[in-house]
Amino acid sequence: YFMVVYPPVVGFMFFNRYNKSMRNRDLKAAYQNLMLANLFGYAVSSIHETAGSFYEEIYLYDRDKNKKFFKLAEEQYLKALRLNRLNSNLQNKIREFYKEKPDD
C-alpha cells in the first residue's frame, strides 16, 4: 500500500514546486522539480501532460527546431494519454501537437 500511494503524493509535492518555480521564472528549478515530479508521479497523467507541454514549448521556441525536444514531448504526451484516455482536452492537445511534427 505504501509503495502505491506514497510516490504519487511525493510527485505532487514536486509538481507544486514546479508551478512555484515557473511563477518565479526559475527555469532550472522548474525543470528539476518537473523531472522529480515525473519520476515519483509515474501514475499521474497531469504531470506527464505538463512535462509534454514543457518540452513542446522548448521545441516551439527553439530556432533550430531540435527534434529531441519534440520526441521528449511526444513521449510524455503518450504516457499521459495511456494513463487517462478519457481526457478529451488532452486528446485535442495531442492532435494540435502533431500538426507541428517535424519532417523526418
List keywords for this structure.
104 residues; mainly alpha; 78% helix
What secondary-structure arrangement, pairings included, does this model have?
Blueprint: H1 2-23, H2 27-40, H3 45-61, H4 67-83, H5 88-98
Helix pairs in contact: 1-2, 2-3, 3-4, 4-5
Number of helical segments with 4 or more residues: 5
Percent helix, as a range, is over 70%
* Overall mean confidence score, pLDDT: 84
Rg, Cα atoms, Å: 14 Å
Spans of at least 5 consecutive residues whose pLDDT stays below 50 are none
* Major sheet characteristics: none
Strand content: under 5%
Q: Give the overall form.
A: globular
Taking the alpha carbons of the first and last residues, their distance comes to 44 Å
Number of strands: 0
Summing up helix and strand content along with how strands pair, one would put the structural category as mainly alpha
Q: Please provide the ordered H/E string of secondary-structure elements.
A: HHHHH
What do these coordinates show?
With 104 residues, the protein is an all-alpha fold. Helix content is 78%, strand content 0%. Helix 3 packs antiparallel against helix 4 and helix 4 packs antiparallel against helix 5. The radius of gyration is 14 Å and the shape is globular.
